[in-house]
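Annotated sample (chain length 198).
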Amino acid sequence: MTEYGFFIDPSRCIGCKSCENACAECETHRGYPMIQVDFIDRANSIATVPTVCMHCENPTCAQVCPADAIKKTEDGVVQSSLKPRCVACSNCVVGCPFGVPKMMSSIDQMMKCDMCYDRTSAGKRPMCATVCPSQALAFVPIDQIKRERKLTPTNVFRFGNQEVKTKVFMMVPETIDEISIDVVDYIWERGADHEAIA
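Output written by the structure step:
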C-alpha cells in the first residue's frame, strides 16, 4: 500500500483560509475549525502559514494531561481530548511546543486538529487538504511530494535542546535537515530595540 504523508508548504500559502472553513465542516469538529492561518512575521510581511497539529511521536500534550484524556492512535494521530476525561485544565495548551491545542470553554474540552481521523482512517484526505487551492496543505504519497516539489520534507523540529519528531512534514530547502526554533531568538533585546527607535 502506498504510504501517504501530510505536508505543509508555507511558501505556497496564500492566506485564503479555505482550510479553516473546510475544517469546521469535518464531522468530528462540531462546527469549530481546528486549523488556523497565521501570519509568519506580521510586522514585516504578509506571508501566512496554516497551523495544524503536527502529531508528535511523543506528544507533550498527552504527557502533561493529568486525566490521561489525550490518546494517540496506532498510526500516530494524536486525538482531541476524550470528553468524559478532560478536566479543562489547559496543561496541553501551555505544553504544546507548536501552540496547537485549543480549550473550548463553551464545552469544557480541549479540541485540536486530528487530521480528520474519521476521513484519513477510511483512506480519504483531510478536509483542509481537499480544498487548499495552492496545495500548501497536501495529503499525498511521500514519493510524489519528493518528485514534484523543489523543497524537501522534514519532520524533525528542535526547540532549544529538545528534538521533536512529528507525523506531519514541513517543506524546507534541501540544505535543511531540521527546523530549529529557540525562544532565545525571539526575546526582545531592550538595548538593541531602543537604539533602533532612537
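Annotation: The first strand starts at residue 4 and ends at 8.
Annotation: The chain has a mean pLDDT of 89.
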